[in-house]
């Protein structure tokens, strides 16, 4: 068995034919059967639903774009244009890293102190470690909020008109994106590099759709972190502790759903439902209209914002009430 | 070249010098307008401290004191200026690290054991852990003492105005980097990808690369080309270190050189501090080939500053408008360039663009680039956690750089750029490799997400 990162891959010991048979059915089907009048006779059968592309460059690129496409698009369009947002992004990643460090320390200490030979205990420890890690991530999200709040006040105090060049809501979004990017990178990049190498997925009876589902889970996680950032900061700013707890609970639920992992109907679909609901929640928190039709007529004043330059966004007044939309 | 003719010595003195050249604060205060003109007129990048007594610009927004509302506009400018400068350093540091990581991951030559430098004579193939540790500490002591000796030698040469010697040394060492090391690098890349290239073509390519590099670094050239060459030679140097430094020695050397950097720059009798102060007294710039400047190019001819200065496009500006930024090296463009960039808005009111553009931009020593890349490259080469460790070290170094620039904005004098970043990098390397990696691997194996 492989001593590397994933236990689902086995380095090829089969003949190339066996390898091909394990891979994309389409590839096998397109093998030319030159016989009938020397023409290609494709026996392409209807591809099975959600067939995993298998290994190779196609898998790597496809899964990479699925997992990180939205995140990088958000980064390039909204964050890369403003140096202050890039700094906040890096700071957010740093906070997530510290939180995961502490979480893994807890898990590591638990593993060292426990009986290594007991697999159920080890998996229980893993679940415990994951839960602790989730709670620590949220705690560090709060710490990030505190730091950015202070930064916001500092920026406001040194600016000419008393307004900081970046609003707390923008900071919330960037911080959430930072957590999402670094969390997705840590979860996904190793799997992506493994998908490049030679190997066979699921040869021990595991699901052959490992890579593509990992990619979708990573994308969901990135987006969820972004939304959680927006909601959480808003909750902290306005003292809505229920919303804050909702974020924590939703994170725990997401992580717990991934524990049902090979049973993708129960893990992937609910996670995407949760993502959509959280997206709607974050959208309404950020001031989006609750009625869909006004969205299309673009009459809602909040929609006149948009990310045009700095200082755009709702301003939170000192008493926590929402200020008028500023431009 | 240096006296012994080996590249390691060159890089030692280069790195030892570099690490001090953290940007002088003058760059933050150039917009103050007329008051700074006299200072900027004498060229060079000596830190301007007189007008800075009212400002403590802080782009991270911690407590700031404002003296007068009249300066508030400039303060806001210097704040935005500060954030832009952080990014102006993030980009080259990131690029250098990307080059090093990409090379380490693809070209196996730099991860193969190929002997050791003469500065690290003790081998690490010993039987016991204690012996290995002892050997690595001894290697570090030798390396650091070589660096200290070379730095003191350089400072003495500078003090006694042996400029020709220093310039000859620098030219010979960049010759070696640009021709020999890049030839080796190209050869290894060709071997990896099985590309066949005939010697005449190779000679032409290397000659062009090297000659243009020498011209850009030591004489005049477009700013971005000079920056690109400095990044490339830093990456080449870092790859040499990664290949030839044994494992444990590399980590101990990284720690020791951060401590040395701290001492050399901050202690009153530290060699690097004396170098910076001597340069300030004489109103001269420090050597062009040893500093990465985000906005200026530097001349070998130290006496004439106005004739050869580049229009200083902010690097972020040029990132945003890649196709549009001109880097014509003519004096005519200097005055026309100023209104184009938004950050220069405050300076457009000053009559002469020359003096203003002198001090703009952040300067970071090449040794800092080299050691950052060594850390990240070693992390990606040797860590079994692979990309997790590399990413963690990368973020740690960027945060360290950010904090260093923050301190620079507060203290307004030359600061060592290595200690904070390397400390964070080392902490994150060891903790991610030993704690986070097994945790994340276990989670990933079962497809659990946290």
List keywords for this structure.
heterodimer; A: 327 residues; mainly alpha; two-stranded antiparallel ribbon; two-stranded antiparallel sheet; 10 helices; 4 strands; 64% helix; 4% strand; globular; disordered N terminus; B: 450 residues; 15 helices; 2 strands; 61% helix
The averaged pLDDT of chain A comes out at 78
Uncertain segments of chain A: 1-52, 302-318
* Intertermini distance of chain A: 59 Å
What is the structural class of chain B?
mainly alpha
Total number of helical segments of chain B?
Answer: 15
The backbone outline of chain A, from C-alpha atoms, is globular
What oligomeric arrangement do these chains adopt? heterodimer
Sheet having the most strands of chain B: 2 strands, antiparallel
Largest sheet of chain A: 2 strands, antiparallel
Helix content of chain A: 55-70%
Relative helix content of chain B: 55-70%
Structure description:
The complex is a heterodimer of chains A (about 325) and B (about 450). Chain A is mostly helical. Chain A has ten helices and four strands. The longest helix of chain A has about 40 residues, at about 120-160. Chain A starts with 8 loop residues before the first strand and ends with a strand. Chain B has 15 helices and two strands. Chain B has a two-stranded antiparallel sheet with strand order 1-2. The chains are: A mainly alpha (about 325), B mainly alpha (about 450). At the A-B interface, helix 4, helix 5, helix 6, helix 7 and helix 8 of A face helix 3, helix 14 and helix 15 of B.
Short note summarizing the structure:
The complex is a heterodimer of chains A (327) and B (450). Chain A has 327 residues and is mainly alpha-helical. Helix content of chain A is 64%, strand content 4%.
Ordered list of secondary-structure elements with their pairings:
The complex is a heterodimer of chains A (327) and B (450).
Chain A: E1 9-10, H1 16-22, H2 25-29, H3 57-79, H4 83-113, H5 119-158, H6 168-196, E2 200-201, H7 210-238, H8 241-258, H9 264-285, H10 292-297, E3 313-316, E4 322-326
Antiparallel strand pairs in A: 1-2, 3-4
Helix pairs in contact in A: 3-6, 3-7, 4-5, 4-6, 5-6, 5-8, 6-7, 7-8, 7-9, 8-9
Chain B: H1 7-18, H2 37-41, H3 72-106, H4 129-159, H5 163-193, H6 199-218, H7 223-244, H8 247-266, H9 271-281, E1 291-293, H10 315-320, H11 331-337, H12 353-358, E2 363-365, H13 366-382, H14 387-411, H15 418-445
Antiparallel strand pairs in B: 1-2
Helix pairs in contact in B: 1-4, 1-13, 3-7, 3-13, 3-14, 4-8, 4-9, 5-6, 7-13, 8-9, 8-13, 8-15, 13-14, 13-15, 14-15
Family (chain B): Belongs to the peptidase A22A family.
GO biological process, one term (chain B): protein processing
Keywords (chain B): Endoplasmic reticulum, Golgi apparatus, Hydrolase, Membrane, Notch signaling pathway, Protease, Transmembrane, Transmembrane helix
């Amino acid at each position: 068995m492989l001593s590397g990162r994933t236990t689902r891959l086995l380095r090829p010991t089969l003949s190339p034919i066996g390898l091909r048979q394990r891979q994309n059915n389409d590839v096998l089907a397109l093998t030319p059967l030159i016989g009938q009048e020397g023409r290609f006779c494709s026996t392409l059968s209807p591809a099975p639903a959600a067939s995993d592309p298998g290994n190779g460059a196609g898998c790597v690129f496809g899964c990479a774009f699925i997992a990180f496409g939205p995140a990088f698009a958000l980064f390039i369009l909204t964050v890369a244009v403003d140096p202050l947002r890039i700094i906040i992004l890096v700071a957010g990643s740093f906070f997530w890293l510290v939180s995961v460090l502490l979480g893994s320390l807890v898990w590591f200490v638990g593993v060292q102190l426990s009986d290594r030979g007991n697999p159920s205990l080890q998996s229980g420890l893993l679940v415990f470690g994951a839960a602790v890690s989730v709670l620590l991530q949220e705690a560090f999200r709060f710490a990030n909020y505190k730091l950015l709040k202070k930064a916001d006040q500092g920026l406001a105090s040194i600016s000419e008109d008393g307004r900081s060049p970046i609003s707390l809501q923008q900071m919330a979004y960037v911080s959430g994106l930072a957590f999402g990017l670094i969390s997705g990178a840590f979860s996904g990049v190793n799997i992506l590099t493994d998908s490049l190498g030679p190997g066979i997925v699921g040869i021990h009876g595991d699901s052959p759709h490992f890579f593509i589902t990992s990619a979708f889970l990573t994308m969901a996680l990135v987006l969820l972190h972004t939304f959680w950032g927006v909601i959480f900061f808003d909750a902290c700013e306005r003292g809505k502790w229920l919303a804050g707890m909702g974020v924590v609970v939703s994170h725990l639920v997401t992580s717990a759903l991934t524990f049902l992992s090979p049973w993708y109907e129960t893990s992937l679909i609910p996670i995407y439902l949760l993502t959509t609901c959280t997206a709607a929640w974050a959208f309404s928190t950020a001031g989006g209209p609750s009625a869909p039709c006004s969205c299309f007529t673009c009459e809602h004043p909040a929609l006149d914002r948009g990310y045009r330059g700095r200082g755009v966004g709702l301003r939170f007044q000192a008493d926590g009430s929402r200020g008028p939309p500023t431009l | 070249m240096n006296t012994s003719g080996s590249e390691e010595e060159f890089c030692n003195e280069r790195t030892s010098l570099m690490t001090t050249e953290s940007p002088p604060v003058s760059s933050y205060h150039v917009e103050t307008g007329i008051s700074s003109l006299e200072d900027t007129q004498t060229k060079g990048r000596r830190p301007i401290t007189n007008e800075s007594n009212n400002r403590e610009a802080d782009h991270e927004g911690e407590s700031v004191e404002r003296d007068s509302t009249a300066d508030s506009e400039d303060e806001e400018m210097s704040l935005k200026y500060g954030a832009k400068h952080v990014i102006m350093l993030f980009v080259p540091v990131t690029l250098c690290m990307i080059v090093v990581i990409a090379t380490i991951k693809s070209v196996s030559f730099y991860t193969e054991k190929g002997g050791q430098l003469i500065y690290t004579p003790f081998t690490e193939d010993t039987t016991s852990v204690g012996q290995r540790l002892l050997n690595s500490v001894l290697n570090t002591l030798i390396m650091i003492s070589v660096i200290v000796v070379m730095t003191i030698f350089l400072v003495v040469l500078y003090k006694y105005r042996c400029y020709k010697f220093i310039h000859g040394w620098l030219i010979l060492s960049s010759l070696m980097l640009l021709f020999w090391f890049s030839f080796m690098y190209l050869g290894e890349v060709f071997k990896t990808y099985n590309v066949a290239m005939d010697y005449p073509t190779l000679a032409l390519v290397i000659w062009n690369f090297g000659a243009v590099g020498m011209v850009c670094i030591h004489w005049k050239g477009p700013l971005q080309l000079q920056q690109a060459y400095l990044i490339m030679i830093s990456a080449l140097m870092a790859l040499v270190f990664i290949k030839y430094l044994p494992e444990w020695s590399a980590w101990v050397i990284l720690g020791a050189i951060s401590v040395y950097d701290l001492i050399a720059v901050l202690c009153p009798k530290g060699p690097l501090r004396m170098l910076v102060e001597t340069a300030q007294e004489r109103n001269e710039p420090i050597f062009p080939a040893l500093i990465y400047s985000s906005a200026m190019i530097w001349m070998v001819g130290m006496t004439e500053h106005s004739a050869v200065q580049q229009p200083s496009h902010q690097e972020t500006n040029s990132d945003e408008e890649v196709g549009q930024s001109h880097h014509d090296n003519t004096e005519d463009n200097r005055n026309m360039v100023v209104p184009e960039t938004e950050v220069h808005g405050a300076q457009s009111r000053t009559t002469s663009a020359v003096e203003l553009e002198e001090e703009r931009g952040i300067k970071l020593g090449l040794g800092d680039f080299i050691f950052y890349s060594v850390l990240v490259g070693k992390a990606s080469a040797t860590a079994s956690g692979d990309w997790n460790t590399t990413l963690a070290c990368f973020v740690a170094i960027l945060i360290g750089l950010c904090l260093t620039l923050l301190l620079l904005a507060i203290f307004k004098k030359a600061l060592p750029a290595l200690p904070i970043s390397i400390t964070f990098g080392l902490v994150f390397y060891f903790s991610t490799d030993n704690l986070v990696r097994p945790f994340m691997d276990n989670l990933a194996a079962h497809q659990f997400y946290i």
